[in-house]
UniProtKB/TrEMBL annotation, chain A:
Gene: sucD
Entry protein name: Succinate--CoA ligase [ADP-forming] subunit alpha
Active site: H248
Gene Ontology CC, one term: succinate-CoA ligase complex (ADP-forming)
Family listed: Belongs to the succinate/malate CoA ligase alpha subunit family.
UniProt domain CoA-binding: residue ranges: 4-100
Sample GO molecular function, one term: nucleotide binding
NCBIfam families to which the protein is assigned, alphabetical: PRK05678.1 (NF004230), sucCoAalpha (TIGR01019)
Keyword Cell membrane set for record: no
Keywords carried by this UniProt record: Ligase, Nucleotide-binding, Tricarboxylic acid cycle
Pfam families with a match to the protein in the record: CoA_binding (PF02629), Ligase_CoA (PF00549)
InterPro entries: Cit_synth/succinyl-CoA_lig_AS (IPR017440), Citrt_syn/SCS-alpha_CS (IPR033847), CoA-bd (IPR003781), CoA_lig_alpha (IPR005810), NAD(P)-bd_dom_sf (IPR036291), SUCC_ACL_C (IPR005811), Succinyl-CoA_synth-like (IPR016102)
Entry's Gene Ontology BP terms: tricarboxylic acid cycle
Species of the source: Flavisolibacter ginsengisoli DSM 18119
Automatic annotation (TrEMBL), chain B:
All copies of domain ATP-grasp, residue ranges: 9-59
InterPro entries: ATP-grasp, ATP-grasp_succ-CoA_synth-type, ATP_grasp_subdomain_1, Succ-CoA_synthase_bsu_CS, SUCC_ACL_C, Succ_CoA_ligase-like_bsu, Succinyl-CoA_synth-like
Cofactor detail note: Binds 1 Mg(2+) ion per subunit.
Name of the protein in question: Succinate--CoA ligase [ADP-forming] subunit beta
Role according to the record: Succinyl-CoA synthetase functions in the citric acid cycle (TCA), coupling the hydrolysis of succinyl-CoA to the synthesis of either ATP or GTP and thus represents the only step of substrate-level phosphorylation in the TCA. The beta subunit provides nucleotide specificity of the enzyme and binds the substrate succinate, while the binding sites for coenzyme A and phosphate are found in the alpha subunit.
Organism in which the protein naturally occurs: Flavisolibacter ginsengisoli DSM 18119
Known partners and oligomeric status: Heterotetramer of two alpha and two beta subunits.
Amino acid sequence: MSILVNKNSKVLVQGFTGTEGTFHASQMIEYGTQLVGGVTPGKGGTSHLDRRVFNTVADCVKETGADVSIIFVPPAFAADAIMEAADAGVGLIVCITEGIPVQDMVKVKNFIEGKNTRLIGPNCPGVITADECKVGIMPGFVFKKGRIGIVSKSGTLTYEAADQVAKAGLGISTAVGIGGDPIIGTPTKEAVELFMNDLETDAIVMIGEIGGGMEAEAAHWIRDNGNQKPVVGFIAGQTAPPGRRMGHAGAIVGGAEDTAAAKMKIMEECGIHVVQSPADIGITMAQLLKK
Amino acid sequence: MNLHEYQAKELLKKYGVPVQEGIAVSTPHDAEEAYRQIKTQYGSNFAVVKAQIHAGGRGKGKVRETGINGVKVVKSVDEVCEVSQKILGGTLVTIQTGEAGKVVNKVLIAQDMYYDGPSERKEFYLSILLDRSKGENVIMYSTEGGMDIEEVAHKTPEKIFKEWVYPAGLLQGYQARKIAFNLGLKGDAFKNMVKFVTNLYKAYLGLDASMLEINPLFKASDDKIVAVDCKMNLDDNALMRHPDLAAMRDVAEEDPTEVEAGKHNLNFVKLDGNVGCMVNGAGLAMATMDMIKLSGGEPANFLDVGGTANAQTVEAGFRIIMKDPKVKAILINIFGGIVRCDRVAQGVIDAYKNMGNIEIPIIVRLQGTNAEEAKKLIDESGLKVQSAILLSEAAQLVNKAVAAA
C-alpha cells in the first residue's frame, strides 16, 4: 500500500538528458525506482542511462507503460511539461522545478482539473516510499522504513523530520514534499487524507510554513473526520517578519490568518500535537505512539 | 519586484489604461520644468508633487528633515520648487516604512485631476491579485476609495466586492459591466470604467504582475476614469521573460546587504536580532530562526544558501552576516543530502581561515551524509568552531553562546 508511489510504479523523467535530470535519475535508479524511460524533445530514439529517450510524453507512456512522471524542466517550460504529462494520461506528476511564474500555474491548475491526474509540487523535493520507490531529489538513506507519513512544504525540513523520526526508533511509510509555491497541485489536506486512508501509515507528521491557508484547511479536515490517526505538526516561520518573502515564493505572511502563530493555534484546536521547536518533531511522535 | 508609481503608470498607459499624467524628476530644477509642461498641457495652475518610494501612506507620511507630507498640491512655479526641495533627498516616514523611513530620490510632478465639471467626482478602490485558495486571479473593488482598504474590509466588509476571473480566458464583458454597475456608474463614466478594468486586467496578465492596486481609482468631473495612484508588484519568477521590466528594478529601494547577497545567489532577508544563521533550504532556514528564538536569541537574518554550500558561498554568507555589528554568534545548519557534510565542513574551515580572525562564536550543525566525518574535521581543525549533529544540541550551543555574549 503506502501512498502515491510504490515498487510497482513505473516512472518517466521529463528533462531526462539535462544535468539535473541525469543526476537525479541515476540516484533514483540506484535507490531501486523502476525508471522506465525519459523525454527530451528532439532526442527521441536515442538512449540515456540505459533507458530509451522519447520525443513526447505520450510516446513514452505508450511504449513503456509509465504511470508516474518527474519533471526537471527549466521554469520557463515547466508548465508546458506538466500539461503535456497530464494530456498523455500520466496519473501522478511530480514537478521539482522551482521558479515557475505564478500565472503559468493558474493555467496549469485549471488545465488538470477534471483530468485523472494528480500533481505534486512544483518547487518540491518529490515523493518517497521508503525502500520501494523514490520519485524526487531527497537523500534516500534518511528515510528508514516504518509507519509514519510525512507531508511537508519544505525539502530539507522534510529530511530533518525523517531523520528525527528514525532516531526516535520509528520509520517512514511515505514522505510527500508538496512544494512551497503559492499554487501547488496537492494541498496539505489532500496528502493528509491519503495518509489517513493508508493501511501502512499509523501516524502523520505535518510540516507547514507561513503564508496561505492550507494548514488550517487540513487541520479542520482532520478534526471533522474524527482525528483518526495522531498528527504531529510544525509551522516554520514563527520569527518571520510580515510582508517579506522567506525564500519560497509562497512563504509570505499576508494577513493575520496566515502567520505561524495563527496556524499553530488552529492546528492545536483541531487536536494536532503542535511542537514549538523543530528539534522536537521525532521525540514528540515517539511519545505519542508509546501512549 | 516592486515598482514606483511613475513606472507602473508608464506601463499601464501601454495597455490603454488612462492614468493621472505626470513627469518624474530628481531635482527641484527639473521639477519646475516639469510643472511648466504640465501647466501648458492641461491648462491648470494646479499640480501635485508626489514622493516616489516603495511604500504606501505617502500622503499622510512626513519627511523627517522638513516635516512636509509626501504628497502635496501646488499652484505656482515657486511652490513646486519649494515643495520638491523639501521632499527630494529627505527621508519619508510613512505607516508602511517604519521608523527608518525611505530616502526620496524622485518626485512625480502630476496633473491635477480634481478640477470642477458637470458631474460629481468620486474615488473608488480596485486591485487585482492572486487568490491562493482558489488558484485564480481576483478583482477586489469598492466604492470606498482613497482610504485604507484594510480598514474598509474590517469595518464594512459588505462594501468590498470580489470578481474571480476564469483562468483560461480574460475578464469577460459581463464581469467588467458588473464591476461598473456595482460602483454605481452610468453613461460615459460607465463605458469608461468597463474599458478601464478590461485593459487593466490585460496589463496585469501581460506584465506578469503579482499585485496591482489602484487607489484611488478616480472618476473625474467630466466622467473620465483614471488611475490617480498605482501600486504594482511583479512576479519575480516571470522576470526572465520580461527583461525590459527587470531593468526597471530600483536597488536604491532595497536593503544594500540583501542586494549584495543576491549577487552571490544567496537568498537573504535582514532581520533585527543577535544570532546570524546560514541554512540550506528555505523551510529549514525559517525553522532554524524559530529555534534560535526558542534558545533565547533573536535571529539576525534569514539566509538560504541553497543546494551548494561550498567554501565560496559559506564565505560570502559569513561576510554578509558579519556586516551587522549586533550579531553575537552564527549558527550554520546544513542537512546534507545530496551535498556531503564533510565537503560543507571543509568549506566552513576554508572560509574561516580565509576570513582571518573571527571574533564571535560559530556553531556548525551538520547532519545527513557523512555527518560524523564532518564533525571530526571541524573538531580537529583547531578553529574556534563548535560542532553539533542533532538539532537539539545546536539549540543548546546557541543558548550558551547567547548567555555568554
